Amino acid sequence: MTNVSAAQWSPNGGAMGQSDLTQSGAYGFGENVFSTAIQRQRLPTAAYKRLQETLDSGLALDPVLADAIATAMKEWAMERGCTHFTHWFQPLTGSTAEKHDSFYNPTGDGNALAEFSGKELIQGEPDASSFPTGGIRATFEARGYTAWDPSSPAFILENPNGALLCIPTAFASWTGEALDHKIPLLRSMDALSRSALRAVKLLGNEDARRIFTTIGPEQEYFLIDERYYFERPDLVTTGRTLFGAKPAKGHELDDHYFGSIPERVLAFMLDAEREMAKLGIPIKTRHNEVAPGQYEFAPVFENSNVGSDHQQLCMQILQNVARRYALICLLHEKPFAGVNGSGKHNNWSFGTDTGGNLLEPGDTPHENLQFLFFCTAVLAAVDSHQELLRASIASPGQDHRLGANEAPPAIISIFLGAELQKVYDAIESGSGDAATPSSYLKLGASVLPHLPMHGGDRNRTSPFAFTGNKFEFRALGSSMSCSFPNTVLNTIAAQAIDRLSDALEAQLEGGAELAEAVLAVVKEGYSEHKRIVFNGDGYSGDWHAEAVRRGLANLPQTPDALPALVSDGAVEVMSAYDVLSARELESRYEVCVEQYIAKLNIEGETTFSMAKTMLLPAAVRYLGELGAAGESAGLATIRAEVTGLVDEFVEAIGELESANTSHPVTDDVLDKAKYVQSTVVPAMSAVREVADHLERIVPDSLWPLPKYSEILFIK
Ligand code: ADP
Ligand code: MG
User: 596: Cβ–Cβ under 8 A, 6 or more apart, which residues?
Assistant: First the structure.
C-alpha cells in the first residue's frame, strides 16, 4: 500500500470516508454507523460544518452543538429500530461496558415521549463503583463520568429483538483521572501529533496540521464446537483448558495453515464480517492459522482511536456470531497447552493529515530523510522504554506464550530487515557496499538508495518488526485491548521524536544543511540505540545470551514485567507528555497485578475442583473395574500403574488445595502476585501433569472431559 488516502488518517477513521465501499453497498458497509456521510445528510448544514471543524482541529466540542447532534442521532437510530442508547466505554477490565437507557420518558398522561438531549449525549454517570480503579476512587467517592468521544462514530448494535445506539465514550473519575483505556490513548495521539508536527516542520513540511497514529491489528482466535465447551468447566470459567493431553496429531502436518476453510467456519466468518462491515469495520483478510481450529483476520488500518474501538467490537462480534453456528470463539492466548497460542499483531504507523505516512521510505530524497528520521526515533523509543513496552502487553495468558517458540520472546528487540540494516550500516560507517553507495554523508541524501517496500520481512520471531512502511508490534495477546500498548508506543515515540528534533535543531543552528543535519542525527541515534536491533532468530538460546550481553531486559512473566509500569522512566515519559500521571500509572499497575492474582486464583480453584470432583473419581472408578477384573500378570501391572498415579494425584491435589488457601497476608500486591507465580502455578502444573498422564490410561468411556483430539479437530 504505497499511498494512503487522507481519509485513512482522518478523525472519523479509515473506511468511513471511502465512498466507493459505501456506495457499492458492499454488505451494507457502514449502514449502522452515524458516519460523516450520515451526519452530512442529517445535521443542519451549519451544525455539520462546526462538528467537522471541531473534529479536524482536535479541540473540544461546543455544548450548544450537542443538542442538534443528539436530535439527529436519535432520529436516525429510532428509524433503524433503536429503543435504547448506551454510553459505550472501556474500563480497566480490558473489555467494554455499557448501561442501557431507554429513549422513552413517561409524559404523565399515560404516554411516553422519545427524548435524547445533548446533555445525555455528552455526559453520563454510570453507577460505576465496582469497576477496577487501582485505588483511585474509593467507593465513598464512587462517581465516575462517561464523556462522549465525537472522534469515534456512534453505531448501532442489532439484536434479533431490537437495537441499541452505542455512543463511544471516555470514562473518568469525578476528579478527572482516567479510569479507562480510551482517555490515555487519545492523549497519546495528541502527544505524538505535537512532537511529530514540530519534526515535520523542521524537515521542511509546512502543510501538515495534524499527525494521526494508525493501527491495523491482525487477530488470531480459535473456534470449537460448543458442545465440547459446555462439557469443560475450565473453558467456561477460565477460557483455557487446564487439563488435556497432547493429541496424536498436532500441526506437524502443516495441513491447516492457509488450508481451505471448513464450510461451517467460513459461514461463520462471512456472517461475522457482514456484521463488522455494517459497523464500518473494514475487514481485509482471513485465513486458517497454524494450529488446528485456529484462524485469523485483519482489518484495513484506521486511526488508533477508531481502530482500537473497532478491535473491541470485533472481539465481541466474533464471540456473538460464533454462537449462531453452535461454535465458541476462544480469544484466550493459550487455550490448549502444547498447541500454538493466539496473538494480535499490531501494525502501527503515523502520518500527516495531508496523507503522508511518515514511516514510508518513499521515492524522493526528502521522503528518505524524513523516513530515516522517524524510523530512528522509533528505534530510540523502543530501546529506551523496552521494559514499559513489555509491561504494556503483560497478562497471565501471555505467560504461556511469550518466549515459548511460537510467539515473540519476552525480550523486546527490533527487526529491520536486510535492506534497511544495510542503509543504517552505511550511515553509521560512512561507507557502504555495492548496493548502498559509499559516501552518503559527503554527497547528501540524493544518493540514498531507494528503500524497497516491504523489505522481505517474514521473520515471525521478532516482537517488533519493520514491515515496509509500518512497524508491527507482534507481542500483543489475542484477547487484549490494543489501547494501552498503542498508548505507550505513541508516547515513547513522541519523546524520542522530540529528542531527535532537539538534536536536529542544534545541527541546523550550527549551520548544517538539512540533509547533512538529518544524517548526522540519524547516525548518532542509531549508534546509541542499535543494541535494540536484532535481525536473527528470536527463539534461539544464543539470542537470550546475546540479549543479556547487550543489556536488554528479559522479563518472562507478568509479575516480572508489571513493575516497569511505575518505574521512574515510565512515570517521567507518561507524565511529561500528559498521558498518564504518576497516580494514574500507579492505579493501572495495581489493577494489572490484581487481575493477574484474580485470574490465576480462579484457575487454581478450577483446577482443584475439576481434579477432585471429576478426574480423580474417574481414575478411582477405573481402579474399581480393574479390581473386579480377576487376576493376571498384565492386570497386576496396570493396577500397580493406576494405583501409583492415583496416589500421586491425591498428593498433588492436596498440595494445590493448600497453595490455594495459604496466601500470604500482606498489603503489597506484588508480593501476593509473586506468591501465586511461585506457589499456585507450579501446584496447578503438578496436578495437570498427573491428570494428563491418567487421561492416556483411563478408559475413554470413564474420562469425563472431551479430549484435544475431539475439540480441535471436529469442525
Ligand atoms: P503484511 O501482510 O506484509 O503484514 P499488509 O499490508 O497486509 O502487510 O498489512 C497487514 C496489516 O497492517 C493490515 O491490517 C493493514 O491494514 C495494516 N497496515 C498497513 N499499513 C498500515 C499503516 N500505515 N499503519 C497501520 N497499519 C497498517
Ligand atoms: Mg503481518
Answer: 395, 396, 558, 559, 562, 673, 676
